[in-house]
Amino acid sequence: MHFYPIWEAASVDEWLYNGGPYELIIAVAYLAPVAAATAVFLINPIGQGSFSDGMPLGISGTLNFMIVF
């Protein structure tokens, strides 16, 4: 599989015929875990008021986070 941007196709019809929209779905699928990790490790602590209240790294911190919240 390779990246097939719309500007590389001769026409939009060619891009659609060769599965262009599926590449967008795959890109979203690969970006979803990145977005989730960003939300858990960056956005949530900012909303909590401090980074120490966010999701910790490591098994002991994770278990503590699950028990506290």
- Which shape, going by the Cα principal axes? rod-shaped
Beta content:
under 5%
Largest sheet: none
Fraction of residues in helix? 55-70%
Our Rg estimate from Cα atoms comes to: 20 Å
Q: What string gives the helices and strands in order?
A: HHH
Number of domains: 1
Unreliable stretches (pLDDT < 50, length at least 5) are: none
Structural class: mainly alpha
**How many strands appear in the DSSP assignment?**
0
Mean pLDDT level: 81
Summed up, the helix count is 3
User: What is the terminal separation in angstroms?
Assistant: 42 Å
GO molecular function, one term: metal ion binding
Pfam families: Photo_RC
Keywords: Acetylation, Chlorophyll, Chloroplast, Chromophore, Electron transport, Iron, Magnesium, Membrane, Metal-binding, Oxidoreductase, Phosphoprotein, Photosynthesis, Photosystem II, Plastid, Thylakoid, Transmembrane, Transmembrane helix, Transport
Family: Belongs to the reaction center PufL/M/PsbA/D family.
How would you portray this structure in words?
With 69 residues, this protein is an all-alpha fold. It has one domain (6-68). The protein is 65% helix and 0% strand. The chain has three helices and no strands. The model has no long low-confidence stretch (mean pLDDT 81).
Characteristics of this structure?
69 residues; rod-shaped; chromophore; oxidoreductase; mainly alpha
Briefly characterize the structure.
The chain is mainly alpha-helical. The chain has one domain. The protein contains 3 helices and no strands.
